[in-house]
Design a protein that fits this description.
By secondary structure, this protein is an alpha/beta fold. 35% of the residues lie in helices and 20% in strands.
Length: 292
């Protein structure tokens, strides 16, 4: 994958590009991951798609200097800047070196951006929000074990409530705050054991706990309205493919039940796997969803 940077406001956004297809595919990674995670899809998708994966704020090589503010307007602006830059970069397409006709357009104008989306875990919530924001610009979406289908009361309290966010920050910045909270949550079964395990993994070191606070808080405005999304998907005839792991205890396939009656636009696939679906061994399954 090519590693590239663009300036956005006061920040520097890192993204990776691979593949040489005429279709644009924007990929959004999971918590604690980075753009390079999507390199596994180049062999199976790179012929038809130019794959662009972005490091989200407080992830990877992106330097986010806008505080803890990040909105879907910011995301659309970043995508437009990347598409505009792609028009200036020669790509080899079917043996010919040329500039692909990627057409940056403001959301809401005729034709839109013409994007396909792939969101994994946290990135699924980002993709859902983007579909809600600019449905006219979305050609297809594949959502792999996507977050955003269920309101977690503790995540809501920590990010949407001012009191909860202050408590969350205190615990994450306090040397022993995270272990204390997790022990209480585990003892009284306030949070699923699988989620506690993941949080423990990402909060072993003080710096990781601070990142957790920043990452969760900066994404607080990405909260898709599923009823509105269902309406928009039908209205714009957007093919949407869900992929879940049968043994995933973090993101359950039942969370997508709201979409099951739209059999014309939506398909829900379940495979024998856990949550970590963005792996080489599942690449052909994920890629196949773009052709269904």
């Amino acid at each position: 994958m090519k590693s590239l940077f663009i300036a956005y406001k006061n920040s520097t956004i890192h993204y990776c590009v691979c593949g040489n297809g005429l279709k644009l595919l924007f990929c959004f990674h999971g918590y604690g991951e980075q753009a390079e995670s999507f390199a596994v899809l180049e062999p199976t998708l790179g012929k038809d798609y130019t794959i662009i994966a972005i490091d989200m704020p407080f992830h990877g090589k992106t330097e986010w200097n806008e505080g803890l503010d990040f909105t879907d307007d910011d995301l659309v602006g970043i995508l437009e800047n990347i598409v505009a830059r792609l028009n200036d970069i020669p790509f080899e397409i079917n043996g010919d070196v040329s500039s692909p006709p990627f057409r940056p357009a403001r959301a809401g104008t005729d034709g839109g951006l013409g994007l396909s989306l792939l969101g994994y875990s946290m990135g699924g919530r980002i993709a859902l929000q983007l579909m809600q924001k600019i449905p006219i610009s979305i050609e297809r979406a594949v959502l792999v074990a996507p977050d955003g289908l269920h309101k977690n009361i503790w995540y809501w309290f920590a990010t949407q409530s001012s009191i909860g966010n202050r408590v969350f920050k205190y615990l994450m910045y306090r040397p022993n705050g995270s272990p204390w909270f997790l022990n209480v949550a585990e003892k009284y079964k306030l949070v699923h054991a699988g989620l506690i395990k993941i949080v423990r993994y990402y909060t072993d070191a003080p710096e990781e706990r601070k990142k957790l606070y920043c990452r969760w808080t900066v994404m607080r405005k990405f909260k898709p309205n599923l009823f509105l999304l269902k309406k928009l998907i039908k209205q714009h005839s957007i093919p949407v493919r869900f992929l879940f792991g049968r043994f995933d205890n973090i993101i359950l396939s039942s969370r997508a039940d709201i979409f099951r009656d739209d059999t014309q636009n939506i398909q829900i696939h379940i495979i024998d796997a856990g949550h970590r679906l963005l792996q080489e061994k599942y690449a052909s399954i994920i890629s196949g969803l773009f052709y269904q």
